[in-house]
Request: fold
Amino acid sequence: MKVIRLRVGRLSGVEIEALRFGLELLLPQSALAGAAVAIEAVAPRLRCRACGVESEVKEPPFRCPACGSAEVELAAGREMQVESVDIAERDEE
Reply:
């Protein structure tokens, strides 16, 4: 079975349903025609520079839930990655 696995961060600016729609239009005319598309939405995760805690957050403003510091960096949530593309046809048993 052909499968395309994508990881899309919720803060990436990519609308997942629009991406899915675009792939449905493009894939039939490609070498990946008939491929299933699996999209994982990645929640934002912060890493606190003050205390080192990494935690999932829902929305801005971003502060460390452990110590309250605003000295945080985004560790995940902005990515758009092709996780894998399985193209091998497997024999049915």
